[in-house]
Write a structure and sequence with these properties.
The complex is a heterodimer of chains A (360) and B (207). Chain A is of the alpha+beta class and 360 residues long. In chain A, 10% of the residues lie in helices and 22% in strands. Chain B is of the alpha+beta class and 207 residues long. The chains are: A alpha+beta (360), B alpha+beta (207). Chain B: InterPro entries: CT_C_D, Cyclophilin-like_dom_sf, PxpB.
Amino acid sequence: MTDRAPGPVRRIFTGPQRLAPHLAALSESSEYGRAIHNADPPPCDAPPWPEPHGGTPGTGLPRPDPQRSAGQALAVVRSGALTTVQDLGRYGHAHLGVPRSGALDPPALRLVNRLVGNPEGAAALETTLDGCAVRPRRAVTAAVAGAPCPVLVDGRPAPWGAPVRVPAGALLEVGRVVSGVRSYVAFGGGVAVEPVLGSRSTDLLSGLGPAPLREGTVLPLGPATGRAAPVDGVPTQAPPAELVLRIRLGPRDDWFTSAALRTLATRVYRVSAASNRIGLRTEGPPLERAVSAELPSEGMVTGAVQVPPDGRPLVFLADHPTTGGYPVVAVVAERDLPAAAQAAPGTPVRFVAVRHRSSG
Amino acid sequence: MRALPVGDRALLVELADGEETAAFHAELLRRRAAGVLPPVREIVPAARTVLLDGLDDAASFAAGLDGWRAEAPDARVPDTVELPVRYDGPDLAEVAALWGVPAEEVARIHSAAEFRVAFCGFAPGFGYLTGLPARYAVPRRPTPRTAVPPGSVALAGPYTGVYPRSSPGGWQLIGTTDTVLWDPARVPAALLAPGTRVRFVATAAGR
């Protein structure tokens, strides 16, 4: 995100996965598809959760049996605007330029996995606004949570936020969101694509992991090991009227005028339709810089509030670049990022500066 | 050295220049290897900073930095990656003009320099290499190319980079290497990690 970046960076936010109103046109994500197809199975890193004996390294799931995997597949009937495979992301490679990636709403991912009896970090599907439809080739327990939406099995209503038994060959439809942006769909055994650098997540910035789903995509499922959660359902949360993001100023707040810092902390922004997995873009009053020099590239964290030349703060989400050259005025508390991922375009956003014990 | 808070769990350590940054990064890796660094999820060096992300107690880590002694650079000679290059890039003549040398001199000057991966970014496995004398810094192209072929050896500002895969790009292309820079199925996935020494070796093939 700098003049020195070897490629134009603006394309990141104008790609086909932006949350534009006409989502039907967005399903053919060819720009990313091309880059993503050549990801081969990688060596694995430290597993992000405990691993049962004999499991696939780094995944916490039993090793899929290739003889049986054809019967354990999941066929994509409707991909939706943007549906990707996500787990808790790939850690420890940021210094090589590899984004963390992973579910934008990790609590929702953990929940759907618990509902179907998976390890919390198993790979599931992350949909965008208009859901998806899949047909498992074997009977499977599924669960949908995150953004509330209708769930249908062979046309009959099924519960959201609860384990749902999907018979072999039946159609599981995840509908358009009632509120929020991203629904998560877990399957007993997890989505068992080969991990890349220890994660099965699709990284839209760098093209690691499986390509976004398309009609006809067939995804392997791991053998289910756990028992579905004995619950009738989980409560839905009413969408907040506004997105409140607690921020800590810095590291580059001194690159902005005091008027700009006041603006950031007091004015209302709105979630831009150009938001995506890389960042939550905002519309609102621009922030004026006190320092006009070019910032040498520096490391970026998830939650960084970066201010590009147009002055509108953008919050880096899971697929953000690992280094950038626009100043970071503040950082959003990690616990507020799942809500940011569920804030639909047009939602009002307020940045609230929080004092910290170390900064007094 | 100055440590800036980045949220609650990260620190951005700012250093005077690229050399100090390299030394501090090397010291961090040395301490981590020796098991005396507190747990940290990511250590991301950049042009003049090192980001430490995922610290349990960023404030006390920052406080402890005052006691760090700047050690002499590691005396061990690190491995050097040699990248065979055909100096046949489409911007070779333009770079030669910017440098004020004949086109065939570009290969000699570039392959005589000793490079170091200062940091990675832009794409997995894309290293920002320093080592060319400052007078050879060049601007980016005014209009980026929509597709730079993989293996392109390119210049911008003080840096040399090699595109690990085809992507849009605005750097000046001076050559091509067939070496695979990034392969997630390989250990290590990235041939050029921060701190790696690099030499470009001119080859005649393809000329």
